[in-house]
Amino acid sequence: GEGGGAPAATIAIEIVWRVGKQLAPLLEALGAGAVSVPEDGCWTREQFSEALRRYADSRELWLKNNRKRMGLDELLLGVAGEGEASTHLDGLVDRLLRSSQVCHRVSAPQGGAQGGVRRTLRPGRPPHVQVRTDTRRGHAVTLAHGLEAYGVDMEALGACLQKALAASASVEREPQVAVVVQGFWDVAVAEWLPRGGVSA
């Protein structure tokens, strides 16, 4: 068997931003093949940073007296909007991200999906999972709410938690969907969920 109650599969969640029309001049200036935009049309912060670094390198925009700052040319001023004429790379990335739509990319294991993983793009930041204790019929229970937003098979998660914690676990549908574990397991469940790719 598997040791340590590790999850059989993980859910990957990435915060990404839409590569909008405002970046078209930058992509055009970099040229085809220099950077690629994924199928879903979103980049991670690192991809934004890499594209801007490549552009600054190709145009020699780094300041001579401070190699950590770049001077903004007309194209970058148009893309980033109003602001200082020179900035750090991270500052420029922040300016671009503020004007881009934030999304989150979820890759969840699913039988029958290509490669066994279903990938979805959802608007906004990822929802938070709440782990708390409560009582049911006079007994202490631990509840994990918000997991369904990640496409988690709640029954399978309940079975994994039951095995990992050696405690009874089930799925509660009312008043909201939650995995219910018998006993005070809030710390253990909160520590176990990130191993499966979900931050509690």
UniProtKB/TrEMBL annotation:
Region entry Disordered: which residue ranges? 108-131
Give the PANTHER family listed for this entry. Answer: EUKARYOTIC TRANSLATION INITIATION FACTOR 2D
State the superkingdom.
Eukaryota
Question: What terms describe the molecular function in GO for this protein?
Answer: translation initiation factor activity
PROSITE patterns assigned to the protein according to its UniProt record, in alphabetical order? SUI1 (PS50296)
**Listed InterPro entries:** EIF2D, SUI1, SUI1_dom_sf
GO BP annotations of the record are: formation of translation preinitiation complex
Where are the annotated coiled coils located? none
What protein name is recorded for this chain?
A: SUI1 domain-containing protein
SUI1 domain span: 136-197
